[in-house]
Amino acid sequence: MTKTLIIGIALWVFGLNLPVYGKESIAGSVKIVRGGATVIRNTETLPAREGMHLLVGDSLQTAADGQLGVILQDGTRLSMGPNTRLSIDQFLYEPAQEQFALAINLARGVMAYISGKIAQFSPGSVRVQTPVAVCGLRGTELAVTIE
How many Cβ atoms are within 10 Å of 141's Cβ, its own excluded? Predict the structure, then answer.
């Protein structure tokens, strides 16, 4: 009985230190960080680090010396150059229910995109919005520069 109680208390104590995502959806993770890069989540600005989970609604930003590489849950790859800001506005990858959506908002900078499973299964479900246009992606690769 004592061993079970100790394990239960340990799980409770250590569980308080784990990140709680609640209903927030994990869209992907940071794979490469070079120079200055941050993740803006709600009102909090976090330094980007390799392995960091990215949530739907996160904004990613690189500094003048920054580069960021991201891989989403469906295998989509995003590369960001210096002085770039983009947000992951929508990400839904539920192949069993045939539900797919990816919406990225590129506010400024340079982004390269290589499609993953969402574009393969439902090409019309991928969208990149910029200040001057909305791109519906039907292919597998895209590079965009917004000044």
Answer: 10
Dist CA 102 CA 25 (whole Å): 13
Instruction: Compute how many other C-beta atoms are within 10 angstroms of the C-beta atom of residue 14.
Output: 9
Which residues, other chains included, contact 3 with Cβ-Cβ below 8 Å and sequence gap of 6+? none
Neighbours of 135 (CB within 10 A): 15
Exposure string of 35-56, with b = 16+ CB inside 10 Å and e = fewer, is ebbbbeeeeeeeebeeebebbb
pTM surpassing 0.85? no
Residue with tokens 């200055």: 36
pLDDT of residue 93: 95
Domain boundaries, the chain: 23-146
Question: Which tokens in the block code for residue 53?
Answer: 């989970």
Structure tokens at 85: 């800001």
Give the span between the Cα atoms of 47 and 55, in whole angstroms: 15
